[in-house]
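agent> fetching stored inputs for the adenosine-5'-diphosphate docking request
agent> found them:
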Amino acid sequence: MSGFQDVRDVMDISGPSESTPRAPPLKKQKTVEKRPDGITRELFALLGENPPPVAIVENKFKEKPKWMGKANPWEWKDFTNPARTDSLILRHWERKSKEPPDLEYRFSKFDVKVDIPTYSDGEYEILKDLDWSREETDYLFDLCREYDLRFIIIWDRYDFPNGKSRSVEDLKARYYSVCRSLMELRTPLNRMSPEETQIFNMLNFDKERETSRKKMANVLFARTPEQVKEEEMLLAELKRIVTNQQRTLEERKDLFNRLEMPSSQGSIAGYTGSQGLAALREFMVNSSDKNKKRKSIAMGANTGADGSQPSPAVASISEKASTAIAASQKEAIQPKKQARKLSGEEMKEYGVIYHDKLSQGIKFRSSMVATNVKGGTAQKVSQALAQLEIAQRLTMPTSKTIQKYEQLQSNVGILLDTKKLLEKVEQELRVLKAQQDAAKEDT
Amino acid sequence: MSHLHQTLSSNQAPSTVEYGGDEISAIVLDPGTAWTRAGFAGEDTPKSVIPSDYGVIDAVGDEPRKLFIGDNDVHAIRPGMEIRNPMSDGIVSDWDTAPLLWRAAITSRLTTTLAEHPLLMTEPSWNPPKNREKTIEIAFEDFDVPAFYLAKSGVCAGFASGKATGLVIDVGASNISITPIHDGLVLRKGCTRSPLGGSFLSDQIRAYFASAAIPLTAHYQVLSKNAVEAWKPADAVYKTFAPGQEPTDSYKRFQEERVLTEFKEYTAQVWTGPGPLPPSTGAHDAATSLLSTTGRPFEFPDGYNLVFNSERHRVAEGIFHPPSMLTNYAGHPDPSSTLGLNALIHASMKDVDIELKQLILNNVVITGAGSLVYGFTDRVNAEIAAAFPGPRVRVMAAGNSVERRYAGWLGGSILASLGAFHQLWISRKEYDEHGAGIVEKRCK
Ligand SMILES: Nc1ncnc2c1ncn2[C@@H]1O[C@H](COP(=O)(O)OP(=O)(O)O)[C@@H](O)[C@H]1O
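agent> prediction call returned; pasting tokens
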């Protein structure tokens, strides 16, 4: 009924309207139960609070929307587009309105142009380039204007009669150098505003760099499937190494924690007695030691050694350490005095030992065994030594035995490394052989 | 009820700036080799699609030449009616008839007052300037349109998939064409094409039927048929013609082409690749077991039916690997010098700037009815991925066959209904002022 009237309204046909004015839309009573149609009330009640498990298809048309009032008419209307130079009249549907229509066509705002500079004959004298004729430069600038500086398109369409073949970079370099020179010509550098200087600097096109960058990009693009595969493999390898490195770092940290000293500040009186020393040792072995095996070895060493008696070596170290502290403290106050270096015999004679690095605090010589081997090998070395039933800690750690011990350690390390390398090479050999065989089969 | 709130009330004008549309009742015409498609801009399918093939009975004595255009006319059996096509190699070659077809496509279903509607036409990227000028002349002189524009069909097909930058692979009847586009403009240096389109595939199937002694009948030849088992001779009554009343050879071929298109649609399949289909090795076809596909049946109009195995792959292989094409017929393309689809893509990408290569390969659009053969897009995908292992490749093809068929038209329809496009039309006034040469300047 009213549908017909709507059509009339839209088409703006003022014919004899329906005799009765349209009744205002009936206010519907809001029902509490929103029971969908295709389902009986009893069944619906069974569902309770839950929504129906399946969508119930209502075999019903969409309700007619309740429009407010009369439909507005549309009009087939002429319009012009200010973005055009030729006042072409096109027509489109427009909402009929009493107000004067917008004068500006609303899509003309999308008509934006890039500002391309122009130059006079006089100015061109400065812009001269041996490689470019005036005509070709003009041609380039026309294309820049036509294609809004999209150089890839400009290059694609570039066809200067009898011209050289030019790369995208050639075109860019010429365009930007002309713009730069023009800018400088019109406003000398020292009178440019900061923004202008910024623009001026941006116009600096580095052709060489751009060319080589593209060359590299091309190489990257032209990778063969094998190269891509290899790259993927290398990346996986890198990832593996990085995660391993993390682990090694953690191990090392653990090691350092193990070596952490109780603070040397404060009285050492508590450690002077044999009981105290034993307690200190206990403390050091236990502190942050999560490795049960090491602990047991250490304890073994403990029982093996003459536990109750502090060894002279230990005592000498503690003495030395305290003198070292004294020395370093003195050092801080006065410039280092060059001590007379003792000869080998003298050193032996007086029982003097020089240490390369001595940190603060008390140390056992047995714990000063330099770890010449690092990382994973260190663990393997200690394993190997354990296998050979050589104690981890020396019972009598004199400087000589320690030297020997260190040597032994590093030799074992070297051997182990060599063994590992050998295994790796053999494995690689096997893989390559297998690949070779596979390739042979393939062909 | 919430959906009602989304519906605009009749008092409220839709905000056109939101979708950028401003419909000016323009007509969009996409003249292809197989079909000529026309419709109003802003709609999603062309209202009027007529075969580009037309029937003609040449003038005899006083009788002027008679044309039969459109589906209803061209399929009728008429003695002496030749079937011709005004296009060759995807562009107009018969300028006397092409405009008649265009006019018929528009006036039969859209409007009879051409002078009231701006006209947007599509053209292939290789359309020469002469042809373009001729087209604009016809639009203004013959059709008397108020405004005109000539858009590249590759760009339009890109728009139809929402791409302004990408690689458009269009498989039409006469060609496969590859058009790299950027920012809605064709990259001319990368445009390539080969004659291995839909008609080529038809020819290959025809050649295969001939070599395997499979009789090809057209629908018009069969009066009635009885069902027969596979491989059994047909049991049908064929139409007979009195001497002098037979349809022409071109008519027969045209009708057979419809059967071949059915074969392409239901039975032919492109080998998955990448790499060429392994060669057939006689009776124990190694390829068959390799393909491990089940055969697919096809029934000819006379009821003769059989199951095709590896042959249905082999007929399509020439498109990708020309040396594999069947050559037992006259006028086949040269298998050694014609570029297969892979080589074509490669040639297209060669001159694309490295900055764009990645982006373009990430937006490969496949369009044209010829691409609807089973497995076509998968093979293209596999071939591109194998040829360019580094970059990420994404191949898009409308799953909807209507959209695939009409992508060129649809893009034109979108373009011609955009508010921002209306400044690009070539107006009558501009044409009068500058002449036909203006098309080169304005339709880039
Ligand atoms: N479903 C289909 N499967 C394969 N090929 C088809 C299918 N439908 C049509 N074709 C073929 O596609 C070609 C027509 O493609 P089209 O894109 O319409 O060409 P044009 O743009 O040149 O008019 C014809 O050769 C036809 O046989």
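agent> quick read of the result: Chain B has two domains: 2-153+408-442, 198-324.
agent> awaiting further instructions
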